[in-house]
Amino acid sequence: MKILPSPCLVLGAALCLATATTALAQGNDLSVGRKMLMEDNPGELWIDQGKTLFMQKRGPKNVSLEQCDFGFGPGKLEGAAARLPRYFADTDRVEDLESRLLTCMTTLQGFDRKELIKKAISPAASSGSDMEALALYVTSRSNGMKVNVALNHQKEYDMYKAGEYLFYRRSGQTDFGCVQCHGEADKRIRLQDLVHMTSKQGAQEVASTWPAYRGAHYVVRTMQWRLNDCVWQMRLPDLKYATDYSIALTMFLNRQGNDAVMQAPGFKR
Amino acid sequence: MMKTTWIKWSISAVGGLVITGCATYPDQAATRQLAEKMVFEAFEASPAHMKRLEQDKSQQICSKIGDAKPGQEDSAEIVRLARASIRYPASGQLSGDWKAGDRLAHDGAGDRIRNGKTEANKENGALCQNCHALAPGEINVGNVGPPLTGYGKQRGNSEAIVKYTYEKIYNAWVYFPCSNMPRLGATGHLTPEQVTHMVAYLLDPQSPINK
Asked: What would the CATH number be for the domain defined by A41-268?
């Protein structure tokens, strides 16, 4: 089934803009138009694509990802993403969704890690990357379930605390840490709403809506992309893919966001 | 058979106990060490760009977790460092060209790094629009910082106000230790000359911000 998203997208975007302007003039927030768009989320298309990629025999070893263990055992996907990041004994590391996918795609399927990372974040207006589609598919299998990031293993405690530390760490010529933009309610960068991540509700939004369809890019984006774009604006150097820095921040935010109901893909402007 | 199973069970139970029993939050020093290591392993960059990740003394003090505010001693240290950081333009003239300031206030680009390359921008934008309301009626403005609409109208443009405004933009932490406002001059994001244009933009009666 091929769906043509363009007419409804264009109409939706126009509606969104119109609504946003009126809402602002009336002193309301900008979420109205975004809510209207969410009901018709083109990101849904990536779920099927991800499922196909997941089931397909691929890579040098010509196997599917069905034996990949996301924490509940090989191939058990229901609710697994809602508990990430978590500690995995086979790698002796805390991994988030994307680093776990990398692990499985290299160990099970035999893909080259560097090559995977090179293509992990797709260009805007492209058909997206395998990683983006896979991340969304795996996450979608937790939809309707509650985020439940646990701290059991020592490395999970360490990761969580490191994430908290990094959230508040200021550096660079803008003196920015995450909290400078995401520490208060009802804030905006120009017209863009900022998520209030030090509130329960804000952290829950983070934990439950990635991967998300990004309207301005016409593709599904993952949490790793979100972090990359933040550090770019902060004037920091290029963030590498799936490092402990990203996993720690994700661990901190997702844990704070426990009990949110998963609903991927989210919809971002 | 029963016995071996029982032994296996108890071993795993004890193992589980050991893991859960000992696992707890690491102390501050351990967290700091681990997280700092993560920072320096997470970025792909030239040595010059890696320097951006290093915190200066003030940034270290201002990175407190949660709502913790710097204590009296820390605040005094930040003010001292901030005061020492301020450079004035060669001309000695602290108020420049409001039109240049207007343009810079609406420029959010400059010095961002993508694929190892610093973005090509003639000069760094002053980023004001991202966080502050500017001229009356401007809609595309942020609200992370306080509105600057009518800034000069409310304050006049006496020599004292010009100096205060210059220093506030150059290094906001002289007056507000650890505020969210970047120390635009002190970190090198803006030059002293650019700061003089921002001062004029805020204070000149002809500037749209005071209309």
From this structure: 1.10.760.10
- Closest residue to A238, CB basis, from B20, B115, B181: B115
pLDDT of residue B120: 84
- With a cut of 50, say whether residue A11 has pLDDT above it: no
Residues 6 or more apart whose CB falls under 8 angstroms from that of B201 comprise B98, B100, B101, B102, B104, B105, B207, B209
Burial class (CB in 10 A: 0-12, 13-18, 19+), B110: buried
Q: pLDDT: is A14 or B100 the higher one?
A: B100
Q: Which residues of B are less than 8 Å from A184 in CB distance?
A: 144
User: Of A16, A68, A178, A230, which is the active-site residue?
Assistant: A230
Residue B23 has pLDDT above 50, yes or no: yes
What single letter denotes the amino acid at residue A86? R
Are A171 and B54 an interchain contact pair (Cβ–Cβ within 8 Å)?
yes
Domain count of chain B? 1
Domain with B74 in it: what CATH number? 1.10.760.10
Quick one: pLDDT at residue A31?
60
Instruction: Tell me if A158 and B26 make a contact (CB, 8 A cut-off).
Output: yes
* Chain A interface, best mutation among B18, B57, B58, B63, by max A CB count within 10 A: B63
Separation of alpha carbons A7 and A46, rounded Å? 18
Q: Is A93 helix (H, G, I), strand (E, B) or coil?
A: strand
pLDDT in tens, A52-72: 999 999 999 999 999 999 999
H-helix segments, chain A: 6-25, 31-38, 44-55, 97-107, 113-120, 130-140, 154-167, 179-182, 200-209, 223-233, 244-256
In degrees and rounded to multiples of 5, residue A10 shows phi and psi of -60, -45
Residue B204 belongs to domain spanning = 66-210
User: Is B11 within a domain?
Assistant: no
What tens digit of pLDDT does each residue of B149-172 get?
999 999 999 999 999 999 999 999
Domain range summary for chain A, segments of one domain joined by +: 1-40, 41-268
Q: Do A165 and B35 touch (CB under 8 A)?
A: yes
Q: Round to whole Å and give the CA distance between A217 and B98.
A: 36
Among A160, A188, A237, select the one facing B45 at the smallest CB separation. Answer: A237
- Clarify whether A16 is annotated catalytic: no
- With beta carbons less than 8 A apart as the criterion, state whether B96 and B204 touch: no
